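Q: Hand in one record:
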Amino acid sequence: MPTDRFVAALNQQIANEFSASQQYVAIAVYYDAQTLPRLASFFYAQALEERNHAMMMVRYLLDVDARAEIPGIDAPQQDFMDVVAPVSLALEQERRVGDEIFALMRIARDDADYASESFVQWFVKEQVEEVASMSSLLDVVERAREQPDLAEDYLARETPGGHGDDATAPPVAGGPI
């Protein structure tokens, strides 16, 4: 059983993941309205991924017989100056989430909670990948600021089939039994 401190921190992270999901939906809608379908699709997929991260955390809490709390969240930012601003916001968000995940790892280690440490380890790996991916996308979108179709072309080349399933990912609450 995880400590009360870890459970509270993980419940806060559930809120953070749902908030990140909503922010990605807002970014996707912005790009959809700009008729940039690949950028929109990329962020719709990111939104689903963040939602699933929250549901993985819910599943873990249920599996260890701890209370999972489903939060209300604040409205996301919906207006942006240009096509670069949403990706810049997304990178800031991914860096912040990385810090939050690292804090979860610290709590698990400090509390000698090996099961929770093992659970959080997957998210550490995921955040390294997410920051790298978003950083690359920001570089591309900044170069394509005046011609966003070039960013669309980049996404068509670099993400043709999506991300695929990660067999090492924790199970999602509500997922297959």
About this structure: The domain at 4-158 is CATH 1.20.1260.10 (Ferritin). The chain has a mean pLDDT of 94. The helical segments are 4-33, 37-63, 85-110, 114-143, 149-158.
